[in-house]
Write a structure and sequence with these properties.
Length: 400
């Protein structure tokens, strides 16, 4: 028992009344595109395994090999005794993949954003930074700015004209300019026009921090993400290996000086144990596979286009989605939960996303497609959504 348990209970009860209480549900790995969820085999439309690599045999084989040869742990921070030759080799391969001078590994996307931004925003001798953030940035990006003690200047979602105007308004103010945004947004499945973003940055001398978590492996030349569309003006690209790359971990890619600077000042790198050999092995194998997976990327794009068409025919809003992430926006949290529950009962997992993750009134099913899915899986999902919504409308006087 904790002396705060009564307070915790009150807050959990309030969350339940708002239909925003979250609970962990038991799942187990299953065949590609499926998961065993609370004891039942379901088609998984909620994970981020976009290329189906999480169960790819090459990743498993290399993990077993490197674990046998190098052990299960990295032993320490890389600045103490944990800087393995494996880290250096994987980072060199990653930099080639991203087309940058250097790359640096981190434990997770959250850790990278939360630790790298404060390191960047505290560069001495530059004055107080002006940080321009897309209002729908991931929570870890907001957290990184808050940890640095800076006030964000937020521009309307993907509105580069608004960003340009905000930068122009502050043209005479001292301090470095940083633009922080994502190439693909995780709840909406839409993408930033990276080329146009970088033209804005160029006009105003701004540093570009681009979160590529949901683009890495899926979009851009050879699946390397969208940073390459910036013509060399993306100063820092952050991405993860826990989504399309099928395993775990994150990276920062950019100049050699940038990465060396982070090694010296970034607390999330300095004061944490290095990624262990089994994780490095999975990353290494994914980097071998992903550049040659154009067929899978094409399939994934086609599945997304087909699902958006099917949902539009039902009158369901999918926003500006143009990727493997397709939101089916239903409005209220209760409606999203009911639709998700109905799908799960029919063997389809599409988890409801509610406030505060998304704005009030935009609760949705966040449908994440995978190259492991078949067209028949996606058609079944769309058809079942239509069936459930028709049944709900019939029970509410025709109101969906």
């Amino acid at each position: 028992m904790s002396i705060f348990d009564s307070l915790f209970t009150q807050e959990l009860d309030r969350a339940a009344q708002r239909q925003t209480r979250r609970r962990l549900r038991t799942a187990a790995a299953a065949r590609g595109g499926h998961v065993t969820f609370e004891g039942h085999d379901v088609v998984d439309f909620s994970s981020n395994d976009y290329l189906g690599l999480a169960r790819h045999p090459l990743l498993a084989e290399r993990v077993a090999d490197w674990t046998s040869r190098h052990g299960a742990g990295a032993r320490a921070s890389r600045l103490v005794s944990g800087n393995l030759d494996l880290h250096q080799a994987v980072e060199a391969k990653l930099a080639r993949f991203k087309g940058t001078e250097a790359a640096l590994l981190f434990a997770s996307g959250w850790q990278a954003n939360a630790a790298v931004l404060p390191a960047l925003l505290r560069v001495p001798g530059q004055g107080d930074p002006l940080v321009f953030c897309d209002r729908l940035n991931h929570a870890s990006l907001h957290h990184g700015c808050q940890a640095a003690g800076v006030r964000q200047i937020r521009f309307r979602h993907n509105d580069l004209d608004h960003l340009d105007a905000l930068l122009a308004e502050r043209a005479g103010q001292p301090g470095p300019r940083l633009i922080v945004t994502e190439s693909v947004f995780s709840m909406d499945g839409d993408r930033t026009d990276v080329a146009a973003l970088c033209r804005v940055a160029e006009r105003h001398g701004a540093f570009v921090y681009l979160d590529e978590a949901h683009a890495t492996g899926v979009l851009g030349p050879s699946g390397a993400g969208l940073a390459s569309l910036g013509g060399g003006r993306v100063d820092l690209a952050m991405g993860t290996f826990s989504k399309a790359m099928g395993s775990f971990g994150a990276y920062v890619a950019g100049s050699r000086q940038l990465c060396d600077y982070l090694v010296n000042v970034c607390s999330g790198f300095i004061y944490t144990t290095a990624l262990p050999p089994p994780v490095l092995a999975a990353i290494d194998a994914a980097l071998d596979l992903v550049p040659g997976m154009d067929d899978e990327r094409q399939l994934l794009a086609g599945l997304g286009d087909g699902l958006r068409r099917a949902l539009a025919e039902q009158g369901l809003e999918t926003g500006a989605s143009s990727t493997q992430i397709v939101p089916a926006i239903v409005g209220e949290a209760g409606a999203a939960l009911a639709l998700s529950d109905g799908l799960r009962e029919r063997g389809l997992l599409a988890v409801a996303i509610r406030p505060p993750t998304v704005p009030a009134g935009t609760s949705r099913l966040r449908i994440a497609l995978s190259a492991a899915h078949k067209e028949a899986d996606v058609a079944r999902l769309a058809g079942t959504i239509a069936e459930l919504r028709a049944r709900t409308a019939g029970g509410n006087g025709g109101r969906p």
